Amino acid sequence: MAKRNRTDRLADWDRKYLWHPFTQMQEWEQDKPLIIEHGTGSYLIDTKGRKYLDGTSSIWVNLHGHRHPALDQAIKKQLGKIAHSTLLGLSNSPAILLARELIRIAPKGLSRVFYSDDGSTAVEVALKMAVQYWQQRQPAAGSKNTFLHLKLAYHGDTIGAVSVGNIDLFHSRFKPLLFPTLSAEPPYCYRCPLRLTYPSCRMACLEPIEQILRTRHRELAGFIVEPLVQAAAGMITSPPGYLKRIRELCTKYRVLLIADEVATGFGRTGKIFACQHENVTPDLMVISKGLTGGYMPLAATLATEEIYNAFLGKYEDFKTFFHGHSYTGNPLGCAVALANLAIFRKDKTLTKLRPKIAELKRLIRSVASLPHVGEIRQQGFMVGIELVKNRSTKEAYPLESRIGHRVAAEARMRGLLIRPLGNLIVLMPPLSTSIRELHQMVATVTAAIQAVTHQSSD
Ligand SMILES: Cc1ncc(COP(=O)(O)O)c(C=O)c1O
């Protein structure tokens, strides 16, 4: 009884005081919030003790499960020393050790680590670094101060990140605040903007990209891409060789390649970084989310020595990168990130992941045959199930029908937490999820899709 009262009280205070992200609060206030109190492995446990599988890795961050002993311990150990000190004018051991480790595992050629707090801030850092790099490296060449990005891109919610993003539902209101950019069609093969078919298209969508780079490279500081998977766009997976070709084009036209590995980094695609599938080294690489195994907010922008060198000079040259945050290089975050990377080594996380990726692939094949499943896209432990009103015409469900939201609600009643992206059901479990749990997740998603699409005629 006492437990129930406490939950009700918390629920009242949640509705009274909190404003949740990406949430229509009018609707939220009419519902009972699910309040998470504990976690263990792949499960989240609410205030009433009910267990749910964490099908989104708590929004794409958790890797080795909740309450991992080594990660818990790393934070406790660091807390015994100090929680925070600044990187402005000082250094700290976890920040140094983590930077060294990140450079060891990053694509060869990246050699410097600049810390920030989350994916969006790390994107801001990359954009500002790129613009300042060209100003200092090539002052005579004129202003290279805009960016190329793909349509449907999502790089975060701060103004710079929104400027290089292109999800209308999230971004259109803020247009007056955004700086101008150039955009190109993404490799969305299921709904190919060029109405071609892969592989006979031979990646014709790269042609217009080359055209932009050829004609506008003098204005372009960088081309920002989500390597291999445009995640928030709808888990749009690029065909093999696409990223490598982008790298070649950026080199040819002297435009910096910025790889946003916020969603794809740290094993999510089957390798530590998605760029490594195609042996690509970007000029700048943005990481966050899985960096701390889902424990603490921490991010970093990795740069090549060439970029770093362009910022060197006497103080009075004013080539300094005048950017930083209060919690830049936070020791607690860096300590748990180090422990996170140690687990990859000790537990051979990526080796153990391979058969699980294959099993997930096998399992979701059965979902593909459901009548309202248009396409399933998978790269490693990133899965997107695109629901369609009409499979043969690929007619989309109208957003107002909230099909993804309804499937997620149904899955929640059956013990699985997922968060859709419009009509796309996303499965992004922690890398530590067992085969048994994968079976349970896919079975629940299947049942939830069936339940909702059977009753849905809209
Ligand atoms: C590719 C990508 N970049 C950047 C971000 C923004 O990260 P954050 O939410 O930590 O600011 C996200 C978040 O989902 C992302 O998927």
Question: Care to describe what's here?
Answer:
This protein has 458 residues and is of the alpha/beta class. It is built from 16 helices and 17 strands. The protein has helices at residues 2-17, 25-30, 57-60, 69-79, 93-105, 119-137, 159-163, 168-171, 206-216, 231-234, 242-252, 305-309, 331-346, 349-368, 403-413, 435-455, and strands at 36-40, 43-46, 51-54, 110-116, 146-150, 182-184, 220-225, 229-230, 236-237, 256-260, 284-287, 299-304, 373-379, 382-390, 395-396, 416-417, 424-427. The strands form 4 sheets. It has a 7-stranded mixed β-sheet with strand order 4-12-11-10-7-5-6, with helices on both faces. A 4-stranded mixed β-sheet has the order 1-2-3-16. Helix 4 runs antiparallel to helix 13, helix 5 (93-105) runs parallel beside helix 13 (331-346) and helix 14 runs parallel beside helix 16 (435-455). It is globular, with a radius of gyration of 22 Å. The protein starts with a helix and ends with a helix. The structure holds pyridoxal-5'-phosphate. Pyridoxal-5'-phosphate (PLP) is lined by residues 118-120, 123, 154-156, 226, 231-232, 260, 262-263, 288. Pyridoxal-5'-phosphate binds at residues 118-120, 123, 154-156, 226, 231-232, 260, 262-263, 288.
